[in-house]
């Protein structure tokens, strides 16, 4: 069978589905993509904070495997994503992150510092091996503890014990989503079925039958190879193939509030409060701010196979209340937010689903949510299912999936 004859289906036009499709197209394959929403990349890969993790946040994973995984993803992120879309990091990069050590942190500044230096060492190793730069720009990774007299403008000492200045960044995800969507829609090798929900997949003698719903009607089509990247719907679809997750899991709904006004660097710091159920602010310069306070913004929790339809469950008023209450908590900790003026119409309180192994929350020291290394690609013959784990890993995983489809690496049989 030639590349062009092979019938490949991707389920889910989120960040991973679209990057995988674009890479397969680049390698000469034709792909059909099924997306239940009316527009591609409008779910988690749109609502998220865009942080390209360098492992700092995963200090509770003492095995260091999660940090390594994030750094592997981070160092390749820009190089790979630029294969598929015209993305200029300078147009979407945030200000650098400060890490604010909150008073109830699960680890203290000394313990965190040890972990951060380990991340920097592993980055240096990767950089010398690959010659790649973090986000195509940075040769080094840094995290340095600020003297106490310099931290006050950044974090309120009533809540914050210490502050690290780091060289970790976010990329504004809406900009990235738009560029990838344009590339997807322009690609003649890719057919996108929007407003099309996949109900299940079954293995047949001549391939895989995908059953899907379009405008209230049920259809099915057969494909030679299937890639499931449906994130919020991943496990439910896997289940129709008889595939179970590798352990207990949870779906969470988390608000990724945006304030869509142009900002100066000095208007607010990009800040991650560690380590536990705290929050983040991101300064995306002319592309606005992101802010989330976990105890208020993490509104949904489910251990069902498919995440509930949280996007349609909240009224505008409820969403705005989540934003306002979160913002009040953030203001108490990050003093510059007191001075941030914005019309309320510029606030977009969107949310997104987070799938993860583990079903106790991040305030529990032993929670599996502190690890994110048992994620990625599982292949069962020519059915591939991918738990993306993090936005950071999307380009890295898209390349891995394309390699698998191209037969570069052995897939193991469904037993
Ligand atoms: C608020 C928030 C902040 C986050 N911050 C970060 C961060 O800073 N850094 C980071 O690395 N990660 C972050 N994440 C995690 C990150 O967003 C996800 O890991 C990543 O975006 C998942 O990408 P994906 O392509 O797998 O999923 P998605 O982008 O959600 O795409 C999945 C697609 O599948 C479609 N779909 C689902 N079911 C079906 C079906 N049955 N049929 C057809 N289509 C279907 C969906 O509609 C969707 O379009 C955050 C997540 C949230 C919610």
From TrEMBL:
Q: Which SUPFAM superfamilies match?
A: FAD/NAD(P)-binding domain
Pfam families the record matches: DAO
List, alphabetically, the InterPro entries matched: FAD-dep_OxRdtase, FAD/NAD-bd_sf
Q: What is this protein called?
A: L-2-hydroxyglutarate oxidase LhgO
Q: Where is the FAD dependent oxidoreductase domain?
A: 7-233
Tell me which species this is from.
Algoriphagus zhangzhouensis
- Where does the record place a coiled coil? none
Q: Which domain of life is it from?
A: Bacteria
